[in-house]
Write a structure and sequence with these properties.
Length: 272
């Protein structure tokens, strides 16, 4: 009976060995690094702000194999320590986001002796950007609360011609073949120059617009709902022509030029 039990026990051992996977012959054996009784300590600070670099990464590399053998993280005061370090030659790499990596070479540990690296300064990689000036440009067409503004000086295509050519490009305005101006089909329009009524518009608006060079116009404002002060004129809308130059004197005299009436005026440059 004992002989049968021994045979069964032997068979079970052999079966268990057969079920255990063998290690791959290509896998290198894990050899634990020897431990000693020395300690490496220090403090990591910001070289510019002179304050602790919290949670900086500290890695200890063997000088012989150039492989990491130990590592740690600094505390909230920037302090760190590597314990149970064996005697030998090492290098220490210290890194953290936003700082340049610092390498301390030729770290020699003697058996049974601790090494205090003291204060270690990391240089910040923060770069001060140059001052940026943002210049905003007006859009060609602006919609404001009480008016629509067409900035003629921002429209390259409005160069050349006269005021009637510029007005043709303004939304809601239309100019017929005879130069007559209308606002959404309504010809009862009050035309202002630089926010004021002008004697140049007292006669034929079509003829007056032809006398204003397009290059002189800065912008055109279209007001579809005039305020109460314009009710007396019975205007169904206002077209305000803003010029690059101020009119200093409008001549009321009419003359003849090539058989057609014209207005002439004096201007001076607007000071800005």
């Amino acid at each position: 009976m004992k002989k049968i039990i021994f045979i069964l026990f032997f068979i079970s051992i052999q079966f268990a060995k057969a079920q255990t996977p063998s290690e791959s012959p290509n896998k290198p054996p894990v050899v634990p690094m020897p431990k000693g009784n020395s300690k490496i300590s220090g403090y990591v600070i910001d070289s510019a702000a002179t304050k602790a670099v919290e949670f900086a990464n500290i890695a200890l590399f063997s000088k012989i194999t150039n492989k990491p053998v130990d590592g740690t993280v600094a505390d909230e005061k920037g302090a760190f320590s590597l314990n149970r370090i064996a005697a030998g030659d090492y290098k220490i790499l210290i890194s953290f986001i936003g700082f340049s990596q610092k390498t301390i070479d030729n770290v020699r540990i003697e058996k049974g002796k601790d090494l205090d690296l003291g204060i270690i300064k990391l240089a910040s990689t923060f770069k001060q950007l140059d001052e940026v000036t943002v210049t905003a440009q007006k859009a060609v067409i602006e919609e404001k609360v009480d008016r629509l503004v067409y900035n003629a000086e921002r429209d390259i295509s409005s160069k050349g011609g006269d005021a009637s050519d510029v007005l043709k490009k303004v939304p809601m305005l239309s100019v017929d073949l005879n130069g007559n101006l209308s606002l959404q089909g309504n010809s009862n329009i009050l035309v202002l120059i630089n926010n004021k009524p002008s004697s140049i518009m007292a006669g034929s608006i079509a003829d007056a617009l032809k006398q204003i060079p397009a290059d002189m116009i800065k912008s055109i404002e279209v007001i579809t709902s005039p305020s109460a002060k314009y009710d007396a004129e019975g205007a169904g809308g206002i077209v305000n022509i803003i010029t690059k130059e101020y009119f200093t004197g409008l001549e009321s005299e009419r003359g003849r030029r090539f058989g057609k009436p014209f207005f002439y005026f004096r201007t001076k440059r607007k000071l800005s």
